[in-house]
C-alpha cells in the first residue's frame, strides 16, 4: 500500500495522480480567489497582488529556474549512476545524490536569506518604482505586506527542491498535495482573518501556507534515505553544473518577471485593474496547469532519463504523444472559456465587493488571455524537452525575445486600451513563445511531426467550431427560461452549455476519426 501511495512507476499513473490533485488544488485556488474577491475590495486586492510581485521575483530567480531546468536532470543522472554502480559513496557513507542535495540546500538557504534581507531593506524604494501611481497610504500598505510575505520564498525555495527530489523518485502524491495545503491556508486567511485584519491577515496565511508546503514533503524525502547536513562546497562539479544550467533559465524567468513587474507598474494607474488582471490570469491558468503543467511534470523525469541514456527515439515518442494530448484538451478549453467567460466570472467572483463593472472588466481580460491558452499550456512541456537535454539557453533566448514583444506592445496598447491592451500584449508574447519553442524543438526530434500536428489541429478546430455553435445556442435557450439575475440561473446556463458543448466536441472529434486517447502506433518513430 505504501508503494502504491508514494511510488509511481508509470507515466500514465503519475499523470493521473497529478491531474487529479492539481485539479483539486486549482479548484481550491478558484475558491480562494472567490473569497478574496468577496471579502476584500478591489483597491485592497491591488495591494495584495502588487505585494506578491517582489517575493515572487526572489523565488522565481533563485529557485524555480534551478529546480525545474537544472536540478532534476542532474539529480536524475546521479541516481542513474548510483544504480549502475558508476559512483561510490563518500567516505562518510553518504550517497553522492544526498551529498549533492545537502550542498544545494545549504547554498540555496544562504542566497535566499541574503536576497530576503536585501529586499526587506530596499522595499520602500522598489515599491516606489513598482506602483508609482498608488496613493501614499496604499504604497505603505503594499510595503508592509510585501515585507511580511518575504518569508514565503525561503519556505517555497526549500520546498521546491524537496519536490524535485520526489519527482526524481516518482513520489508524486505527496508532492502534489503541497499546493492543496497552501491554498487551504489562504482560504482560511480570506474567510476568517480578512474581515478583522484585511490583506495583512491573508498575507500571514500565505507565509504559514508556504511553510506547510515545505513541511508536508520533508518526511517523504527522509523516508527515501536523506539526512540533513550542512555542506558548503561551491567547487562541487555537479553543483557547478546545476548553476551553469540554471543561469539561462533564470534569465528566461527574469524576462517573465519583467513583464509582470512592468504591467503592474502600468496597471497601478487604474484602480482595481491589478486585481482584475491577476484574477483573470489565475482562472486562465487553471486548464494550463491541470492539463499542461501536470503532464509536463509527470513526464519530465522520464524525458531526462531517456536523454541521459541517449534514447532519442523514446524521448521523441513521449514528447510528441504528450504534445498531442495537450492540444486535444487545451484547444476546446480555449473555445469554451471565450464563449462562457461572463458566466465563469459571475459564478466564481461575482459577489460581495466584486460588482458588475468588475465582472465585465475581468471577463473581457479573461477572454483575451484565453487566446493564448494553448501556448501557455504547452510551454511547460516544450521547455522541458530542452531542459531534459540539458539545453537551457534556447528557451532563454526565446523568453527574452517574447519579453521584448510583451513590453513594447504592452506600452503601446495600454495607452489606448488600458488593461485590455496589457492582456492582449501578454497573450501575443505567450503565443510567440510557444510557437518558437515548438519550431526549435521539432528539429531535435527523430520524427517529422509537422503533418501529424497540422492534421490533428484541423480535426480539433472543426470539432471546436461545432462545439461553439452548440454552446451559443444552448446559452440562448437556457438564458430565456431561467432567472439570469440569480446565481442558480447562471449556474444552470453554464453547466448545460459546458456539458453539451463537451459532448458535441467529443462526438465531432469522433466523426473525424480522432480520439482523446492517443494510439501509440500513430506517433512511434
Automatic annotation (TrEMBL):
The answer on whether this UniProt entry bears the keyword Hydrolase reads: no
Q: What does this protein do?
A: Involved in peptidoglycan biosynthesis. Transports lipid-linked peptidoglycan precursors from the inner to the outer leaflet of the cytoplasmic membrane.
Q: Which UniProt keywords apply?
A: Cell membrane, Cell shape, Cell wall biogenesis/degradation, Membrane, Peptidoglycan synthesis, Transmembrane, Transmembrane helix, Transport
**Could you cite one Gene Ontology molecular function of this protein?**
lipid-linked peptidoglycan transporter activity
Which pathway does the record list?
Cell wall biogenesis; peptidoglycan biosynthesis
Homology family? Belongs to the MurJ/MviN family.
Cell wall biogenesis/degradation recorded as keyword: yes
Q: How does it sit in the membrane?
A: Multi-pass membrane protein
> Which compartments is it annotated to reside in?
Cell membrane
One Pfam family assigned to this protein is MurJ
Mark the transmembrane ranges: 12-31, 57-79, 100-125, 145-165, 172-193, 199-222, 258-279, 285-304, 325-349, 361-383, 395-413, 419-441, 453-474, 486-511
GO biological process terms held by the UniProt record? cell wall organization; lipid translocation; peptidoglycan biosynthetic process; regulation of cell shape
Taxonomically, which superkingdom?
Answer: Bacteria
What protein does this entry describe? Probable lipid II flippase MurJ
Q: Which GO terms describe its cellular component?
A: plasma membrane
Amino acid at each position: 500500500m505504501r508503494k502504491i501511495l508514494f511510488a509511481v512507476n508509470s507515466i500514465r499513473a503519475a499523470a493521473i495522480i497529478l491531474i487529479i490533485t492539481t485539479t483539486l488544488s486549482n479548484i481550491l485556488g478558484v475558491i480562494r480567489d472567490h473569497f478574496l474577491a468577496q471579502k476584500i475590495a478591489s483597491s485592497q486586492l491591488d495591494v495584495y497582488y502588487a505585494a506578491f510581485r517582489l517575493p515572487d521575483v526572489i523565488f522565481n530567480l533563485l529557485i524555480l529556474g534551478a529546480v525545474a531546468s537544472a536540478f532534476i536532470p542532474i539529480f536524475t543522472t546521479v541516481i542513474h549512476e548510483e544504480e549502475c554502480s558508476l559512483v561510490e559513496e563518500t567516505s562518510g557513507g553518504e550517497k553522492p545524490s544526498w551529498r549533492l542535495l545537502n550542498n544545494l540546500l545549504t547554498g540555496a538557504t544562504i542566497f535566499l536569506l541574503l536576497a530576503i534581507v536585501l529586499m526587506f531593506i530596499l522595499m520602500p524604494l522598489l515599491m516606489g518604482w513598482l506602483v508609482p501611481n498608488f496613493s501614499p497610504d496604499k504604497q505603505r500598505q503594499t510595503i508592509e505586506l510585501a515585507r511580511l510575505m518575504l518569508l514565503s520564498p525561503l519556505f517555497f525555495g526549500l520546498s521546491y527542491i524537496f519536490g524535485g527530489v520526489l519527482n526524481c523518485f516518482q513520489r508524486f502524491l505527496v508532492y502534489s498535495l503541497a499546493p492543496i495545503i497552501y491554498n487551504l491556508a489562504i482560504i482560511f486567511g480570506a474567510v476568517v482573518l480578512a474581515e478583522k485584519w484585511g490583506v495583512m491577515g491573508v498575507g500571514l496565511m500565505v507565509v504559514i501556507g508556504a511553510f506547510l508546503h515545505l513541511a508536508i514533503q520533508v518526511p517523504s524525502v527522509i523516508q527515501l534515505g536523506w539526512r540533513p547536513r550542512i555542506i558548503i562546497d561551491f567547487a562541487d562539479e555537479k553543483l557547478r553544473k546545476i548553476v551553469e544550467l540554471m543561469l539561462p533559465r533564470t534569465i528566461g524567468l527574469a524576462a517573465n518577471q519583467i513583464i509582470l513587474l512592468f504591467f503592474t507598474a502600468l496597471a497601478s494607474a487604474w484602480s482595481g485593474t491589478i486585481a482584475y488582471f491577476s484574477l483573470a490570469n489565475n482562472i486562465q491558468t487553471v486548464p494550463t496547469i491541470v492539463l499542461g503543467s501536470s503532464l509536463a511534470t509527470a513526464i519530465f523525469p522520464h524525458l531526462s532519463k531517456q536523454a541521459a541514456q541517449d534514447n532519442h527515439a523514446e524521448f521523441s515518442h513521449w514528447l510528441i504523444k504528450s504534445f498531442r494530448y495537450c492540444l486535444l484538451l487545451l484547444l476546446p478549453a480555449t473555445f469554451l472559456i471565450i464563449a462562457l467567460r461572463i458566466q465563469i466570472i459571475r459564478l466564481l467572483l461575482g459577489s460581495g465587493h466584486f460588482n458588475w463593472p468588475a465582472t465585465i472588466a475581468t471577463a473581457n481580460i479573461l477572454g483575451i488571455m484565453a487566446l493564448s491558452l494553448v501556448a501557455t499550456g504547452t510551454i511547460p512541456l516544450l521547455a522541458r524537452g530542452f531542459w531534459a537535454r540539458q539545453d537551457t539557453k534556447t528557451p532563454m533566448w526565446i523568453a527574452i525575445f517574447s519579453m521584448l514583444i510583451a513590453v513594447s506592445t504592452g506600452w503601446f496598447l495600454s495607452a489606448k486600451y488600458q488593461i485590455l491592451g496589457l492582456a492582449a500584449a501578454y497573450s501575443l508574447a505567450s503565443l510567440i513563445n510557444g510557437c518558437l519553442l515548438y519550431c526549435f524543438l521539432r528539429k531535435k526530434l527523430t520524427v517529422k511531426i509537422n503533418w501529424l500536428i497540422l492534421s490533428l489541429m484541423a480535426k480539433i478546430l472543426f470539432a471546436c467550431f461545432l462545439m461553439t455553435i452548440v454552446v451559443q445556442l444552448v446559452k440562448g435557450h437556457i438564458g430565456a427560461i431561467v432567472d439570469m439575475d440569480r446565481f442558480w440561473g447562471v449556474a444552470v446556463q453554464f453547466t448545460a452549455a459546458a456539458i453539451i458543448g463537451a459532448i458535441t466536441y467529443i462526438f465531432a472529434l469522433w466523426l473525424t476519426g480522432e480520439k482523446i486517447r492517443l494510439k501509440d502506433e500513430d506517433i512511434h518513430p
